[in-house]
Structure formats: C-alpha cells, structure tokens
Design a protein that fits this description.
two-stranded antiparallel sheet; single chain; globular; 431 residues; 17 helices; mainly alpha; 5 strands; Citrate Synthase, domain 1
C-alpha cells in the first residue's frame, strides 16, 4: 500500500478504497468510485463556500494563516512593503522573479503607454448618476473595456492575454480617477506618463486649479505601500470569481469585472468602507463596550467590521504594516480622530473571550480606511483603492488558470433538495 494514500472503508458496502494523497489533498473525483450500488452516482464532497477545498494549484502567493505569513513569489510582504514599488511587485507577480533595472524600465514604459482610455469611455462614464457608487462605475466600465478591445476574446493567445494584462493594470487608475471626478462634478484629468504609477493616480484624482499639482511624497509613499499590500491574496472571493468567470474563456475584462463586483461586498473589500462607517457610528471610546456587547449578541446583526478572516487565525500581516504606515500619514495630514477609537476597539476585542476563542484579529481593512480618509478620499471610494492594486493579482491568477492543463470550466455539483417529477396542473385546477 502506498504511504501517501488514504484508506477509506464504506460502511454501507464494507468495501475498502485507497485514495492517493498529493500535496496534502485527495482528489475529490477519486471519491466518485465509491458507490453504494450499481445505480449510485458515486460519492461527492459537500463544501459550501469552499471551506476545505483547493480549487487550483498556484505558485503566486503563499499564506500561512496560523502563523500570519504572507509571501508573493516567496518574498515576505513586509520586505516588499518596505523596499519595493507597486510596479516592481506587479512584475514579480506576473513573471515570478524580481526585475533587473532594464526589465523594470521596460515594464514601466509598457504600463505608462497604456494609461489612456478611449475617449468614448468618458461619454460612457458621463451616463452614470452623480451619486453612483464608485465600485459600480468601476465594475461596469471595466466590463465595457472588452467592447473596446475585441481581440481580448482570443484568450488562447499568450501574447494577446499579456497585452490585456498590461492594459488592465495601466487603465484601472485612470478609470477609478474618472469615476471620482465624475462624482465630484470635476473635469477628468488625463494621465501624466512622466509620473510614477501611484503619483499619476493621485494627480488624476486630486489635481485642481494648478498646472503642476503634486501630491505630498509621504502620501505617495503610503499609498504605494498600501498598493503593494493589496496586490494579491491567493484564492479569495474576488480572485475566485475572476478565475471562475475566466474558466468559461470569457475575456479578461469580463473576468476582472466579476472580480471587482465580488470585491464590492462588505464581507470582502467593501469592509474598508464599512469599518469607517462603524467607527463613525461608535463615535467615542466610551461607546465601545456597548458596541462590543451588540457584536457578541447572537440575535443581533452587528459584526466587528475589519476583524476576522477565513484564512488568518492570527494577526493579518498586512494590518501590522498598515498600522505602522498610519503614523507617517498622520504626520502630514494630522491624526484621524477615529484612530483612537480603532486602537481602543482593537485592544478591547483582543482581550475579549468571544474574539480570542474564535481567533478574530484585525484584517487588512481595519486600519486602511483611516489612511484613506486622512488622505481626503470619500468613504465610498475606499474599495476602488483596493481594486486598483488587486487588478495585478486578478490578471496573474487569470493567466495561471488559463495556462493550467488541470483547469476546465468551473462547474460545481449540488445536492438536490427540491421536488422531483410531477405532472403539470392547469391554472384553474390549482388551489
Ligand atoms: N465580528 C463578530 N463575529 C465574527 C466576526 C466579526 N467580524 N467574524 C467572524 N465572527 C464569528 C462568526 O459569527 C462565527 O461565530 P460562531 O462560531 O459563534 O458562529 C465565527 O466568528 C467564525 O466566523 P465565520 O463567519 O464562520 O468565518 P468566515 O471565515 O466564514 O468569515 C469573514 C470570514 C467574512 C471575513 C468574517 O470574519 C467577517 O464577516 N468579518 C467582518 C468583515 C470583514 O472585515 N471582511 C474583510 C475580510 S478581509 C478581505 O476580504 C479583504
């Protein structure tokens, strides 16, 4: 009997099966041979929300949730946040290795030559209401990009895919900035390709009334760090949505638009917006104990937003880096008064049995909103600031999925619990 195997006895039949173990997994399809009789379809695995199901093999991002470790292509997130730039990290995630100087220059040039969007995109965005949510605008506009690049349908061409990856990374800040300007009733600012990725984005968002408006370098640096921290996070909800849509061989714009809509939800990227609203609702440190009581009330509907994670059962390493970055930003912008509430909320929660027993720690979204707010971004724009850098992760995961011979169109099974065959009853005969 092979050592890397699992022996299973089906007590319905008394039969024994040997299932191979590879990378700590059994293949769910190997269960299918286990049948209670000739008519039986075969055993399946029931796993709502993929709690214990690996959907792919991936070489991009490693997470050890118990130890609080996050690595991109083997490089610890803390080192990348300290030393790297978002575009260097994008190159790393796409190519597997850090670039040398000329590779980085070439890659940066390829991104900056794709930052403009077709003029009709502006007309498209003008159609949104003044109060349209920035995530709705971003998702719809990215989906619309596929109509501007019909070649993107050719997902079996590596060269064509590569071009769309570059376009998506390059155009995302432009589209997000146009959405912001639309909400504010301000004219759109075109990209300035002499600026770095983050500085160009901030200029497109904030520049007003000055020819050479420039963001404070400390704020550019802080957003650069936030972009690096958000670049990828293996098989999260939005990445899975991107992979699933991409598995039907839809073009990358349509797949990434699905990723954006998945990110929008408050249990995922939308949590950064929800945290800020929660901190405002708490309003004062003295109200924290009452708020925590409501969170713990099983009959209530309150959650401690920015806490908890499917994978991290320890402090989210990204939250640690962001907490440190807060100080540098607040030195320039002045302290966000909500910081004191957040720090006290964390302190109280981390001593409370409810959170300790469930291993609930601050996640990436707990402190990021405080920085975004201090930088003058409106709350409903926060998740755009997550979507821009995560585009790198989405396109890399799309690429990995489409190049993987193990992958097929995503199509889970179900356990049917409804009515079986019955005869149609004419409407006048129904009770
Ligand atoms: N506040 C209060 N209780 C919580 C929280 C929270 N934030 N998170 C989890 N719990 C409780 C659950 O009620 C559950 O309790 P129970 O065992 O008594 O039923 C237990 O902890 C386990 O939680 P699950 O919901 O099973 O954990 P799951 O892995 O399904 O959910 C999630 C993870 C969605 C992140 C959850 O922790 C949550 O809703 N957090 C708040 C929203 C948030 O911050 N999302 C951002 C996540 S990071 C990201 O996506 C970028």
């Amino acid at each position: 009997m092979a050592k890397d195997s699992l022996t299973v006895t089906d007590n319905r039949t008394g039969k024994t099966y040997e299932l191979a173990i590879d990378n700590g997994c059994i293949r769910a399809m190997d269960l299918r041979q286990i049948k209670s009789g000739a008519e039986d379809f075969g055993l399946m695995a029931y796993d709502p929300a993929f709690l214990n199901t690996a959907n792919c093999k991936s070489a991009i991002t490693f997470i050890d949730g118990d130890k609080g470790i996050l690595e991109y292509r083997g490089y610890p997130i803390e080192q990348l946040a300290e030393h790297s730039t978002h575009l260097e990290v994008a190159y790393l995630l796409m190519n597997g290795e850090l670039p040398n100087k000329s590779q980085l220059e070439e890659f940066t040039a390829s991104i900056t030559t794709h930052t403009y969007v077709h003029e009709n995109i502006k007309g498209f965005m003008d159609g949104f209401r003044y109060d349209a949510h920035p995530m709705s605008m971003l998702a719809s506009t990215v989906a619309a990009l596929s109509s501007f690049y019909p070649e993107a349908k050719n997902v079996r061409s590596k060269e064509v895919r590569r071009r769309q990856m570059i376009r998506l990374i390059a155009k995302m800040p432009t589209i997000a900035a146009f959405g912001y300007r639309h909400s504010q009733g301000l004219p759109y600012i075109y990209p300035n390709n002499d600026l770095g990725y983050v500085e160009n984005f901030l200029t497109m968002v904030k520049s007003i009334g000055k020819q050479n408006w420039r963001s404070h370098p400390a704020l550019v640096k802080a957003l650069e760090i936030l972009f690096i921290l958000h670049a990828d996070h293996e098989q999260n909800c939005s990445t899975t949505a991107t992979r699933v849509v991409g598995s039907s061989e839809a073009d990358p714009y349509s797949a990434v638009a699905a990723g954006i809509t998945a990110l929008y939800g408050p249990l995922h990227g939308g949590a950064n917006e929800a945290v800020l609203r929660m901190l405002r609702e708490i309003g004062d440190k003295k109200n924290i104990p009452e708020f925590i009581k409501k969170v713990k009330d099983k009959d209530g509907d309150k959650k401690l937003m920015g806490f908890g994670h499917r994978v991290y059962k320890n402090y989210d390493p990204r939250a640690k880096v962001i907490k440190k970055a807060c100080d540098e930003v607040f030195e320039v912008t002045g302290k966000n008064p909500l910081l004191d509430i957040a720090v006290e909320l964390e302190r109280i929660a981390l001593q409370d049995d409810y959170f300790v027993q469930r291993k609930l720690y601050p996640n990436v979204d707990f402190y990021s909103g405080l920085i975004y707010e201090a930088m003058g971004f409106p709350v409903d724009f926060f998740t755009n600031l997550f979507a821009i850098p995560r585009t790198v992760g989405w396109v890399c995961q799309f690429e990995e999925m489409i190049s993987d011979n193990d992958q097929k169109i995503a199509r889970p099974r179900q356990i049917f619990t409804g009515q079986r065959k019955r005869d149609y009853v004419a409407i006048e005969k129904r009770g």
